[in-house]
Amino acid sequence: MTQTLVKDEFERLLEESFSKSANVADIVEGTVLKKEKDGYLVSIKGGKTEAILPEKELSSEDSLEVGDVKEFYVLKEENDEEGMLLSLKRLAFAQAWAQLNDAKTQGDTILAKVVSIVKGGVLVDVADLKGFIPSSQLRTGTPFDGLIDTKIEVKVLEADPKKNKLILSQRQAVVEQRNQVVDDILAGLQEDQVVTGEVVRIADFGAFVDINGIDGLLPISEISWQRIKHPSDVISLGEKIEVKIIKIDNELKRISLSLKRMGEDPWQQIEGQFSEGQVITGTVNKVTGFGAFINIFPGVEALLPVAEMEGENVNPFNQYKVGDSVEVQIKKFTPQEHRIALSVKDINSENTAE
User: Fold this and answer.
1) What's the pTM value of the predicted model, to 2 decimals?
2) Is residue 177 included in any domain, yes or no?
3) Looking at the domain assignment, is residue 118 inside a domain?
4) Whole domain around residue 127: which residue ranges?
5) What is the pLDDT of residues 34-70, one digit of tens each?
6) Range list of β-strands (E), the chain
């Protein structure tokens, strides 16, 4: 092959490389030439005309200056009438999906911003992508308004760009963090210590309170000296509360908390205020098949057994209703054991004897 033929072939291939048009979804390199009213003009190597980057195709983190050299995503191929249409947003999306898949594979923790509460969980924003955290994967177990606009650490459960499906878990991220720091945190705590924590989950049996990064259990029985139907009657998600540490289990890495012990024990307060044989007025707190529980002092319940109610073959549910005011006599008073027995029958017996 002569030198002339070699030169001609080289020039032909070089010309083809410059004139080859990019296809949709290709990544091309270009230089920003000019800022227009609705976008930018970009020079693409090999392009026949100037390409257009619409303002709406910039991602939230993009900032362009004339002369910048960047990679762009091809939204529309150029033709004889129009130039190439470009996007930085699509490029950012593609890169974000790739990073999310890497995070899932490597088990990395990422940041997500909570944007709204929806049925079954919350929607979050991750690098301009919308993700979903099911309620079961939230640390709180239940979405609440205080989460909106906060940034939380999450693990990637599923990242599928074809289905535009991004599922995340806050709970898995919290568990991993807890395992890393729990020993150090427990070493800095002691029983009877008063600490401040955030209510992060509420259940029928109690609440979980974040204490320096680990969750302590606040049983419903330790929330209030008075009988409550549900923990949410007293505390709410996201609330900061002071609690007392009542038990630390280093082997199981658990801490138990008390809110009611932050105040004075009402059973100690009533010593000396009541005596056996005294007639008082109380309020029915609960009715059962074996009797009624009567509140005689804030946080103190006493039992009025069926046998001490007035009449024969008494049905407690017909005799009393929650909230009823009732006059009773203290039959047995042992506050040290948290026990007080009441009677109505004895009051009437004494009145009859008189």
Assistant:
1) 0.60
2) no
3) yes
4) 100-172
5) 998 889 999 987 777 789 999 988 877 778 889 999 8
6) 27-36, 39-44, 51-54, 69-76, 85-87, 109-118, 121-126, 129-134, 151-160, 165-169, 194-203, 206-211, 214-219, 240-249, 254-258, 279-288, 291-297, 300-305, 325-334, 339-343
